[in-house]
Design brief:
- The protein folds into 3 domains: 173 residues, 2-Layer Sandwich (Threonyl-tRNA Synthetase, Chain A, domain 2); 269 residues, Bira Bifunctional Protein, Domain 2 (BirA Bifunctional Protein, domain 2); 93 residues, Anticodon-binding domain (Rossmann fold, 3-Layer(aba) Sandwich).
- Strands 10-14-15-22-19-18-16-17 form an 8-stranded mixed β-sheet, with helices on both faces. It has a 5-stranded mixed β-sheet with strand order 24-23-25-26-27, with helices on both faces.
- The radius of gyration is 28 Å and the shape is globular.
- The relative contact order is 0.08.
- By secondary structure, the chain is α+β, with helices and mostly antiparallel strands.
- It has 19 helices and 27 strands.
Length: 605
């Protein structure tokens, strides 16, 4: 039976309700919160202590409910009836209180189980398909650490057992590729509580990957006429108040820092915080965004239309406050570096500049074997009150993005409410080799911040005009992007990204000095080469190189000394293998690196 995406969102949402119904059958009196669908599954939050040993019994009860093909019935109730229905469910009552007066209240029922929900759901439990409970985790009520921590049970659902089996196999493969595990095993990065949760320490091998990515995009930026700039990690709070990041982005920021010259030690922390919040006292903010600094650089000197477009780029580190329970390896952190850039241009230049940004993103994806992607256009929801500026400016910006996306000829979708607070945006959503979606590159059009900062350039009519601002970050966050790449390649990086491109394995200690001399000659050709000088058998050295995902190894024994060659083996590029002189190998390896060739057999090669 074929189902479209909307059907399967409803089916997985219904599976979450079945999960709650099964839990109440087995654990009467458990307090329930909510249970939405996710991209490939569902979850439900409970105020109860479960263990992994509980999951098989809950899953079996779910299967009984699904096999019974119980009708899932929606009915509209008034507020008093809803209060009565959920009188013993305090979290449901709090969710009920969130529903504005005058708005309809809906309850979905299946087999005597009632849940407060807007839907949608499938018509009956038999349409849910095959289910599997996956894990248990913690989740604060309403996502706030100030509230009680609940337990979240995660599950997944697919139309058939075969599709479920394939999905579970992909999950097992994902565990093997988990960037946190590989990052530790390959010595790429670490996160140390002594430094701070969500703050990444790049180890030498991981730093190589980061630097190669930066060099790659910096070369592309040079070709497109960008200029590199550097801005401080901290700036006056008033700058971010003027930009709107404070307060529109308030919840995602670290607390402001009091200006020591105006520090009144007689005030409590709460009083100081209140005065900073209101603007009564000056202070600083650890920057959550790079754009205010770039705006100040643009405005630091007079500009003519002949100076536009002005393209400013920075590998700028920013800091966002994330709750500790939401942090995860490199993909959800508190400090990260963006490959950030801001283009100040005329309206006439806007379309061409957007296309230049989109071309850069697409080149990155092509180079890294990420050919499976779609575009999401994030639009403003005028009713939300989360956005600055007037409707006319937003309409122009949204029209510009729609127009340029239409030229790409790739799948796109509009999502209301997903715009940045200052302008609409294009997000590239990429599927990795396991079919998982990642939101990566972003391009945003902004008429509001230039007006807010009174930016201007002198036009051909010798009068001042306001530029349009494009925000763009192809990688997004280097931390998140590298976390994705670790999993995307499973640690087997293309040669140009590999932290160590060749390891020479002398078969005995007396050959180590000669191996080091060859390694040094190759390093002088800008190749990353190391020698395994451990006093161990050759087999142990080969196994270590395999575990550490070294793309090429060269066995160096008596025969190689006599012939002046290296015996090359490669786990990612068979064309490099064979008996070669160091000079021959350096030429071949350099060619593969320059072409940024993907590993053998990799999708997209």
């Amino acid at each position: 039976m074929e189902r479209n995406e909307m059907d399967w969102t409803a089916a997985r949402h219904s599976a979450a309700h079945v999960l709650a119904a099964a839990v109440l059958r087995l654990f009467p009196g458990v307090k329930l919160d909510i249970g939405p669908a996710t991209a490939t599954g569902f979850y439900y939050d409970f105020d109860h202590t479960f263990t992994a040993a509980d999951l098989p019994a809950i899953e079996e009860e779910m299967k009984k409910i699904i096999a019974a093909d119980l009708p899932i019935v929606r009915r509209e109730v008034d507020r008093e009836e809803a209060r009565e229905l959920f009188s013993r469910q305090p979290y449901k009552l709090e969710r009920l209180a969130d529903i504005p007066g005058g708005e309809s209240i809906f309850v979905y029922s299946l087999g005597g189980f009632d849940d407060l929900c807007r839907g949608p759901h499938v018509a009956s439990t038999g349409r849910i398909g095959a289910v599997k409970l996956l894990s248990i985790g913690g989740a604060y009520f309403r996502g706030s650490e100030a509230n009680r921590q609940l337990q979240r049970i995660y599950g997944t659902a697919f139309p058939t057992e075969e599709e479920l089996r394939r999905h579970l196999e992909r999950l097992e493969e994902a565990k093997l590729r988990d960037h946190r595990r590989l990052g530790r095993e390959l010595r790429l990065f670490t996160i140390d509580p002594a430094v701070g949760l969500g703050l990444v320490l790049w180890l030498p091998r991981g730093t190589v990957i980061r630097q190669e990515l930066q060099k790659f995009i910096a070369a592309e930026l040079d070709r497109q006429g960008y200029e590199q700039v550097v801005t401080p990690h901290i700036a006056q709070l008033e700058l971010f108040r003027r930009s709107g990041h404070f307060p529109y982005y308030r919840d995602a920021q670290f607390e402001p820092i009091v200006d020591r010259e105006n520090l009144d030690r007689s005030l409590t922390y709460g009083e100081l915080a209140g005065e900073l919040e209101s603007g009564q006292r000056s202070g600083f903010l650890i920057k959550p965004m790079n754009c205010p600094g770039h705006i100040q650089i643009f405005s630091s000197s007079p500009r003519s239309y002949r100076d536009l477009p002005c393209r400013l780029a920075e590998f700028g580190t920013v800091y966002r406050w994330e709750q500790s329970g939401e942090l995860g390896g490199m993909t959800r952190v508190r400090g990260f570096t963006q490959d950030d850039a801001h283009v100040f241009c005329t309206e006439e230049q806007l379309g061409g500049e957007i296309q230049g940004c989109l071309a850069l993103v697409r080149k990155i994806f092509l180079t890294l074997g990420m050919g499976d992607y779609r575009v999401r256009i994030g639009l403003r929801d005028p009713a939300s009150g989360k956005y600055i500026g007037d409707g006319a400016a937003w309409a122009k910006a949204e029209a510009a993005l729609r127009r340029e996306v239409a030229k790409l000829g790739i799948p796109s979708r509009e999502e209301v409410g997903e715009a940045a607070f200052y302008g609409p945006k294009i997000d590239f959503v990429v599927n990795d080799v396991l079919g998982r979606e990642w939101q990566l590159g972003t391009v945003q059009v902004d008429y509001n911040l230039p007006a807010r900062f009174a930016l201007s350039y002198t036009g051909p009519d010798n009068r001042p005009h306001t530029p349009v601002l494009i925000h763009r970050a192809p990688f997004g966050s280097l931390e998140r992007f590298c976390g994705l790449l670790i999993e995307h390649f499973g640690g087997d990086f293309p040669l140009w990204l590999a932290p160590e491109q060749l390891r020479i394995l002398p078969i005995s200690d007396d050959l180590t000095e000669g191996a080091e001399a060859i390694a040094q000659s190759l390093r002088e050709k800008s190749l990353r080469v190391k020698v395994d000088g451990h006093s161990e058998p050759l087999g142990a050295k080969i196994r270590r190189a395999e575990v550490e995902r070294v793309p090429c190894v060269a066995v160096f024994g008596r025969r190689e000394v006599e012939t002046g060659t290296l015996s090359i083996r490669s786990r990612i590029c068979k064309a490099l293998e064979g008996s070669r002189t160091a000079e021959e190998f350096a030429i071949l390896l350099s060619r593969e690196i320059a072409q940024r060739t993907l590993p053998d057999g990799f999708p997209g090669r």
